[in-house]
Amino acid sequence: MAEVVLLDFWGSPFGMRARIALAEKGVKYEYKEEHLLTGKKTPLLLETNPVHKKIPVLIHNGKPISESLVIVQYIEDAWSDTAPLLPADPYGRSQARFWADFVDKKIYDQGKKIWANKAGEVQEAGKKELIESLKLLEGELGEKPFFGGETIGYVDVALVPFYTWFYSFETIGNFSIQAECPKLIEWVKRCLERESVSKSLVDPEKVYVDLILVLKKMYGYE
Amino acid sequence: MADVKLLGTWPSPFSYRVILALKLKGIDYEYIEQDLSNKSPLLLQSNPVYKKIPVLIHGGNPISESMTILQYIDESWPETHPLLPADPYGRAVARFWIKFAEEKLSSASMIFRTSGEEQGKAVRETVEVMEILEEHAFGSLKEKGFFGGEKVNMVDLAYGVMGRWFDAIEECSGVKVIDPLKFPLFCGWAERFNEAPVIRDNLPGRKELVDFYKRRREMMLAAAAAASN
What we know:
Chain B: Is involved in the conjugation of reduced glutathione to a wide number of exogenous and endogenous hydrophobic electrophiles. The complex is a heterodimer. In chain A, β3 (57-60) and β4 (63-66) form a beta hairpin. In chain A, α4 (90-115) runs antiparallel to α5, α4 (90-115) packs parallel to α7 (163-173) and α7 packs across α11 (204-219). Chain A is globular, with a radius of gyration of 17 Å. In chain A, strands 2-1-3-4 form a four-stranded mixed β-sheet, with helices on one face. The longest helix of chain A has 26 residues, at 90-115. Chain A folds into two domains: 4-78, Glutaredoxin (3-Layer(aba) Sandwich), CATH 3.40.30; 90-218, Glutathione S-transferase Yfyf (Class Pi), Chain A, domain 2 (Up-down Bundle). By secondary structure, chain A is α+β, with helices and mostly antiparallel strands. Chain A has helices at 13-24, 43-48, 68-78, 90-115, 121-141, 154-159, 163-173, 177-180, 182-192, 195-198, 204-219, and strands spanning 4-8, 30-33, 57-60, 63-66. The N and C termini of chain B lie far apart (56 Å). In chain B, α1 links the parallel β1 (4-8) and β2 (30-33). Chain B has a four-stranded mixed β-sheet with strand order 2-1-3-4, covered by helices on one side. The longest helix of chain B is centred in the middle third of the chain and has 22 residues, at 116-137. In chain B, α1 (13-25) packs parallel to α3 (66-76) and α4 runs parallel beside α7 (154-160). By secondary structure, chain B is an alpha+beta fold. Chain B contains eleven helices and four strands; from the N terminus they run βαβαββααααααααα. Chain B has helices at 13-25, 41-46, 66-76, 88-104, 106-113, 116-137, 154-160, 164-173, 184-195, 199-202, 206-227; strands at 4-8, 30-33, 55-58, 61-64. The chains are: A alpha+beta, B alpha+beta. At the A-B interface, β4, α3 and α4 of A face β4, α3 and α4 of B.
């Protein structure tokens, strides 16, 4: 086995977080795809993440780490000499952790209310809540180029992968995130100028056609 | 040294995570009890996103979310009683279990908030969570001590709520979930936690906790009954 292995799924925003962090640190790794849409999980996944049986899993020198933000913090700790994702001061670090945790608590579930439902009450609630969350994040970004300041940091890594699912939310929910949160979309474009981000994020239209629509069919969310 | 304030409510286990961390580190602080039915301007200004306790205010800077607060405390006062392992992998394992606690322990509070079928569901979910913890988390401790080795660390603090608080919840909800025969490793750890230095002198009393949760449960069930009429 290679020294660093990432078990991942191409369309997962959580997996993309790990990809961006590894790229920022210049870490060479072996990417292994888990074909989640087949419904089958590999023995390697079940063995390395027996508690949740989910990707991403980072395996470093045979030792597995699960949960995307735990993985990003591990990458930060293990390759601490380059491209720090967290500021040095404890207060700055606490704020970065608070906002990354906010992203974790809100964005995926609010987005799911939109894509996994037909037009109606639940979907409308999801749209309203998602826009509220994104506006709060815009407020936190303020006039800075990135959440991490002059360069991308922990919160940027936590949030930007969800951009790949915005097209699906907008198409299914019939609304525009750009119209509501233009500063956030400008921030996304700045992030995409970095190779670590542009190489780690997948095409939003591919996410819509090959993932979201497939999931909707698979689970009967139509 | 800049002053430290803690906004909390008694006997919130989330408040207690922070109190115990401050006590373990020997940090002086001013505790300000909050009234959540009438939130103070200080609370609303210090935690505008969630408007919840606990909030730590250090030198005027507010930090929210109990486990984020604990990491801040550990990094700001690194010299005494470290709350995380020093090595990256040990820290990753600790953070994994902290996240698990943050996501999964809420089913336990549902046991206390509900009755009948809903309570039955909460009990089943909590048993499932306990089975995972017994095998994968507490399984690694054996008889040795704590997640922090010989000393309590922040993973122990994250789960510490499941000791005395859960005991009180079980008593006033009339359900027994933590069977010592089924969860011996957890129960051994919980006893050690309750007896650990500093912890044992700073936990709320068992009787006070039971009385508090009994009254709260009566209020909650009455409100639920009134709402469904």
